[in-house]
Amino acid sequence: MRTDDPVPQVGDDPLPPVRDVLAAIATGLWRWDNASGTVTLDAEAARLLGLPERPQTLSEAGVRSRFHPVDWNEIYGTVQLAVAEGTLAEARLRIMDETGRHVLRIVRSRSKPVMHGATEAYELIGTLQEVTEPAPGSAARTPVTGDWRRSREAFLLDAGRALAEARSTEEVLRVAAGLSMPGFSPDGLAVFGAEGERLTIIGHHGHQPGDDGPFSAMPLDTDYPAAEVVRTGRAVYLSTPEDYRRRYPAAWPLASRFERQSWAFLPLTVAGRTMGTWMAAFTYPVSFTPDERSVLTTVARMLAQALSRAGVAESERELTEGLQRSMLPMLGPRIPGMSVAARYVPTGGGLQVGGDWYDMIPLPSGRIAFVIGDVQGHDVRAAGLMGQLRIALRAYASEGHRPDAVLSRATRFLSGITESISYGSTGSGASGSGSAGSGVSGSGAGEATQYDPRFATCLYVEADPATGVLEIARAGHPEPAIRMADGTVLQRPTAGGLPLGIDPDADYPTTRLVLEAGETMLICTDGLIETGGHDLESGWSRIRTTLEGYLGEEEEGGLEDGLELLADRLVQAVHGPSSHHTTGPLADRREDDIAVLLLSRTGRPEQRTDARRTVLTVAQAEPERVAGARRHLRDLLHDWADDDQVDSAVLMVSEMLTNVLVHTDGDAMLVAEVTGVPGARRLRAEVADGSDDLPHRRHPGELASSGRGLVLMELLAGAWGVDPRGDGKSIWFELYEDAGASGGEAGADGLG
After folding, report:
1. Under DSSP, is residue 281 helix (H, G, I), strand (E, B) or coil?
2. What are the respective helix, strand and coil percentages of the chain, to the nearest 5?
3. What Rg do the C-alpha atoms of the chain give, in angstroms?
4. Is the whole-model pTM more than 0.90?
5. pLDDT per residue over 440-478, tens digit each?
6. Strand partners, 339
7. What is d(CA 502, CA 496) in angstroms, rounded to the nearest whole number?
């Protein structure tokens, strides 16, 4: 229709021409022909652009010079989007004077593209109308400022990503409260849920504590917008307080005290079910245009999905954590002469359940048993086997069995329950003819599941609080570590056997050691050692650093408080800072479950000593433990002043142990002790065996492969000797730190 064509009449009264109507409301018409690059203006449109008030046709460049450059770029993008979508193009434009320095007025443009056949040419036909300058801070509240559609799409992408990453209901609500919607932003949010026939409040933002009181536990048949949305599944938009008062007179007194001007109540729908209502309240009037309603509806859908996911995740987390807590014991009453601290940290992935556990068991003899173990896997089956194995170990220990017997019975128990076939709930598996090895049943009513063997590592310690004697049996588990009173940390070699469940007839030898006053023993699962890409060696180095840094911290709040602090620091050293507070390569490392148990022997300060003493045994069947003894001695002498003396001590101990294994039929027991103050300490190392044959000084030839043991002792030791005993003999040597690399008087005591 041309602008000067008469308007069709309705009834008997003629209507004025369109041009006269538009001029009366100060609205101009314009046509932009994209093919020719010309813009046609009527008289009112020309006036609004600061041109002479008459119809005229200008070039695109001539019209462009009248707009602010930023506004022209924005309207150009808006027009292109409208052409692609076939929708209206809408924008605010600043009209500049001839110099381009001053704003004459602000106009609002609304236009519709008309395509010319299949070509890319089009005409844009629209209106121009002058608008008042918006109040400061209110420009963002109108959807026609700038490129609304592009802002909306960018906002929805950001909102969707943020809500998808929220892992709990609290995080979802925090993200929703921080959303800055394009053109308008609510300052009051509330999420309502439904439990039975009542409305509940899941969370809110922008309200004071206690404001939600009248709205919680509200019946669903109440005349309240959120309740109506839950009942009907349809959104409610209230643009003004008058709308609210008129539609919900009973609920208006509750809402009026918040001094809001507009409200939007939208259904939270998941899988066709309305699970609640999202309320967005505004302190300024909002007209809720179709674009604004579209944004709110889309956010409500994303919010519903995020809340649904968070609810499922929280339910799973609560279930699995409750399961794990029910399977882990509480440490018993205080033990006279000893302090205990323990930690369990589940893995961060999956269901957060696993097979790690610890336990403390009072024994009939008055001693205390400490158990730590790890069932293979990080799933529900591992957690179930862990619970069964923990109960079995507690039962065997309570019967009074020794540590080796407890583990022997435990491996038979675990082998039995993992080799059996598990049947489904559809019927009895008695009629099945499948074998346990294949895990396949016959045609009976029961259906056998796949055979799934598991094993478990375990460390069992029987402690005598009165004497500090520890008897340790180990089934494929990492060895314990001891922090001595002066801060020296040693990994104590202990005899061990196969993991539980592999060989039902496996034996588990027992190692005995003494925990002196002021010493602390650490036993843990491999998650504490190997997390973060470490192996056993580098992982122990990291743990040793943390244990050594604990020296002296027991005075901060008593030994028990210091032990609890040490347990926290051990976990923190492995996991690093939580990912909720910082980012980085150590953030929230949860690759494996972690179980930690610390046992410290208390004592009066005058009972503590700075002496370091270690004892270990090398059996005839374990010659490879000689290398472990050498490393153990180096750890004991980690701060010795002279490295050459350390090398000499390691060489002599290796020679003494090897001689026992080669020339006798028994085992060798090494006792090493460091006494004195730093700089003037004495090392005494003694190797005992059960043979009565005394060593003899020999004169080996140049090519002889043996016979130099005593020669080395005479050259390297500050003092040495051989002491006969009733059940064998012991050969010993001493080194003095203040003697330096030159050593003491060779052979001071000679042969005993």
Report:
1. strand
2. 35, 25, 40
3. 42
4. no
5. 444 444 444 455 678 999 999 999 988 888 999 999 999
6. 600
7. 14
